[in-house]
Write a structure and sequence with these properties.
- There is one protein chain.
- The chain has one domain (5-190): 3-Layer(aba) Sandwich (Rossmann fold).
- The mean pLDDT is 97.
- By secondary structure, the protein is an alpha/beta fold.
- Strand 1 (43-49), helix 3 and strand 2 form a beta-alpha-beta unit.
- 32% of the residues lie in helices and 27% in strands.
- The chain is globular.
- The structure holds S-adenosylmethionine.
- Residues 8, 19, 21, 49-52, 55-56, 71-73, 76, 96-97, 112-114, 117 line the site of S-adenosylmethionine.
- The site of S-adenosylmethionine has 19 residues, from helix 3.
Length: 204
């Protein structure tokens, strides 16, 4: 069963930043690795569902011409809106995925600490919608905790394994450590090599 919406409402009723995302070295390092793993220097239009208080949003904003960040909880949307108030290219909206989904296509979708809240069917639906929203050559980045948690239906490693079997996505990178797993996949309906930063600059 997916984690009910009331769980997230309760979390934010008890604390402005329930997961202390802006406080720990653990999270700061993980966010830095996430942004460092983005293969392209710049993205034109990115989507980040489940943005919480916007710590990763702020880092992603530096690499995107347009960024849409969303959360199902109003106070999280307000916190991210405040955090990005000086950044005109960032739009923050209240949206519950995968039932609600933005119009248009993206060249980057980032799913960070979100997918383990869904049952397997809903998780697959969310991943399919993400893949379908990507332009050819667009990138899907996932990053998730690996330790067991009562509310989580799976780990980061499980998510990474599942991603490799989804049609239309080719794995570009995977990073595993004891705490989290980070993946980068490219939307590539046909065959052919995935994007290489070295090739793009004539080094390979
Ligand atoms: C653990 S926080 C992760 C925040 C952020 N992505 C990060 O990595 O720092 C999960 C967030 O996802 C939001 N969320 C959970 N289910 C959601 C859904 N179905 N649609 C949109 N947001 C959701 C929660 O409200 C919460 O803010």
């Amino acid at each position: 069963m997916s984690t009910p919406g009331s769980y997230f409402d309760d979390q934010y009723a008890g604390a402005a930043d329930p997961w202390h995302l802006g406080e720990r070295w653990y999270d700061r390092r993980k966010y830095d690795l996430t942004v460092a793993a983005l293969p392209r220097p710049r993205y034109l239009r990115a989507f980040e569902p489940g943005c919480s208080v916007g710590v990763l949003t702020e880092l992603l904003a530096a690499r995107c011409r347009q960024l849409l960040s969303t959360d199902r909880v109003a106070s999280a949307v307000e916190a991210t809106t405040r955090r990005t108030s000086g950044l005109d290219h960032v739009t923050v909206r209240r949206m519950t995925v995968p039932e609600q989904w933005p119009e248009g296509t993206f060249d980057l979708v980032v799913l960070s600490e979100l997918l383990y809240y869904f049952d397997a069917g809903t998780r697959t639906r969310l991943l399919r919608r993400s893949a379908e929203s990507l332009d050819d050559g667009g990138h899907l980045v996932t990053v998730h905790w690996n330790h067991p948690v009562a509310e989580h239906t799976c780990t980061g490693r499980d998510i990474a394994d599942r991603l490799d079997s989804l049609p239309g996505l080719s794995r570009l990178a995977r990073y595993d450590d004891p705490d989290f797993t980070l993946t980068v996949h490219e939307h590539r309906p046909g065959s052919g090599p995935v994007f290489s930063p070295a090739r793009a600059e004539g080094l390979a």
